[in-house]
Amino acid sequence: MMFRMFVVNILFLTNIYSYELPFSTLGNSIIDANGAVVRMRCVNWPGSMETLMPEGLQHNSIDNIVLIIKQMNMTCVRLTYSIDVTRSSDLTVYQSLSRLNLTFALQGFMNNNPSLINSTVSNIFNTVLDTLGKYNILVLLDNHVSKAMWCCSDFDGNGFWGDRYFDVEQWIDGLKFMANKTIDRPYVIAMSLRNELRGVRQNQPHWYHNVVRAILEAISFVNPRLLIVISGLNYDLNLSFIRSLPVQNLVPISIQKKIVYEAHWYSWSYYGLLSDCNHIKDTI
Ligand SMILES: *[C@@H]1O[C@H](CO)[C@@H](O)[C@H](O)[C@H]1NC(C)=O
Ligand SMILES: *[C@@H]1O[C@H](CO)[C@@H](O)[C@H](O)[C@H]1NC(C)=O
Ligand SMILES: *[C@@H]1O[C@H](CO)[C@@H](O)[C@H](O)[C@H]1NC(C)=O
Ligand SMILES: *[C@@H]1O[C@H](CO)[C@@H](O)[C@H](O)[C@H]1NC(C)=O
Ligand SMILES: *[C@@H]1O[C@H](CO)[C@@H](O)[C@H](O)[C@H]1NC(C)=O
């Protein structure tokens, strides 16, 4: 037992001293507070679907899921959420799963995470974040959708500001709500503004306007320590326009070194099955 505790302590110390928070950017790198380049291996943990909470808790305890993430050698989690959870934050797990008639998931949740069945969905996010922090996993909080559902299509009402479910004010309030959770959790190192903007409404003027608004009124306003991850147009395949007008030029100096651009590249992303990312680099 002593030996185990000793090993655990060493692991924690090693991880703690491998980087110094908070992070910022330098050129195309993320650096820690001492200027050392940080490389992260992140796994996506979806939490933006109809249940309004991180998926999988009907199959295993939160602690065990995080231990599996550690075992996979991941150093970071991209935790997705919907704006809906920020607007129904008092709904309990029991109510959320019952309302969707998810009888088996409800039973599974009670078996694997019995103490949390009457917690609110917002508190489930807190507990997941706390557990990730306990095991020294860094977190990127990703606003995936407004209406909780699978993402993404051109016509799902979640693609661009002004779409059926994508209300600008609700989105700003939702970002603030989640940013508030990061204040006492320094291992949450980044928040993204929105996953994969897309659809018929997409345009550059509104992109710049809303991106800058969310930075100034929500993310940096609530927690200036955070990296801010910004998605391009057309499902995040196109960031070409930031060459002529970087978002950095539109925000105060203190925030400029917090800006991170996000580009997506899949085998089905119009670029074919190329083994390198040169095509997407060309659009930036
Ligand atoms: C994780 O890293 C350790 C140490 O570098 C290595 O032995 C192990 O094979 C890795 N595990 C996976 C799943 O990649
Ligand atoms: C859940 O089941 C009830 C009763 O069978 C039904 O009326 C309701 O529409 C169902 N709700 C959903 C979300 O499927
Ligand atoms: C959850 O709430 C129900 C109904 O109020 C109660 O019977 C049950 O004991 C509670 N469970 C926990 C773990 O708090
Ligand atoms: C911010 O978080 C604290 C807990 O850390 C909570 O008490 C408070 O209600 C939250 N405020 C908002 C506006 O969500
Ligand atoms: C990227 O978006 C810009 C601005 O909307 C547009 O002019 C350009 O054609 C797009 N490029 C590609 C490769 O789709």
UniProtKB/TrEMBL annotation:
Keyword Ligase attached: no
GO terms under biological process: polysaccharide catabolic process
Keyword Methyltransferase attached: no
Gene3D superfamilies according to UniProt: Glycosidases (3.20.20.80)
Domain Glycoside hydrolase family: 61-270
Top-level lineage group: Eukaryota
GO molecular function, one term: hydrolase activity, hydrolyzing O-glycosyl compounds
Keywords linked to the UniProt accession: Glycosidase, Hydrolase, Signal
Signal peptide boundaries: 1-18
Pfam families: Cellulase
Recorded family membership: Belongs to the glycosyl hydrolase 5 (cellulase A) family.
Name by which UniProt lists this protein: Glycoside hydrolase family 5 domain-containing protein
Organism listed in the record: Rotaria socialis
